[in-house]
Amino acid sequence: MKTNFILVASIIAAFSSGGCATKENFDFKVTVVPQTSVSVTSLSDMNKAADVINKRLEYFFSIPQKRIKFDVTENKISVSVTKIDTGKIDLIKDVITGYKKLEFWETYENGEIMGYLTKANNMLKDIQTTHEDAGRVKTAEATTREEFTEQNSLFGILNPRVTAQGEPLPSCMIGLVSGKDTSDINKYFKMDQIKVLFPPDVKFYWSKNPHRYDPSKSLYELHAIKVTTSDKRAPLDGSVIISAKPTTGSADSGVKIDLMMDSEGARTWAKITRENINRCIAVVYDGFVRSYPRVMSEISGGSTEITGDFTIEEASDLANILKSGELPFELKIVEAKY
Question: Which alpha helices (H) appear in 153-240, and where do they start and end?
């Protein structure tokens, strides 16, 4: 079954095609190793990483296979490419070592988290009162925005997503915060007194871009993610994608990416969507929420369409990343010659 899975926020691709001036063609050799010594356990891991690098060179730069040579050991991967435009060397390095993951997470509804946010705000208020000077006189009730912010450490900077009547809006987005205040929110949620107030399986993620309906373009979304796996990882990620293709639709649908998952990914995706009908699924890329569509029905077969506010170039880059596969671990360059 072909089901449209709509992304309501843009996904920004990891690599953009830079405007470097063309230079002479040279042979290029680069050696990469795992970012940490504990990343690799077998030669097969390194071979998998080499396969991903090989596909990225082909998909991003259309380099023929006969010009690419690999030497893989348990400790390093050496890649030799002939006739490379030296103006693209930096971009090639970024593509080879890029380690940005696409993840699909289950979520909490805003209404399920609102009570915990209120408890956290009250706890911070108590902590603030405890540390105040005994002789300081505080206003009994806030009458201005400044006074409210002073008396409410959390709700003074986090705008809860509620109606005019105070009812939680349906979404996994639990609030909007000015970009300059996101670090304070992170600090509050890391406090032991605050963490124990929330369910142990909740995690908080920020949006990559400002809220699309914020005219000031300064407010960022805070989302409540639900951790449902024993290893605390996303139940589904980009490693299950076996093909990805950007296409342009009608004027109102814009650019989209057609995805196909492998059999295991299709089964997991069907299970996740079946168990989360009328709930949001958060699409997280490189640690930021890019979309949080509401599931309307089970998505079976592993075929899905992603659409959003991104250009055909950005969609092409993201498709190349997905169909190349994900690196099994982070890599770093230790030598480059050309």
Answer: 182-190, 192-195
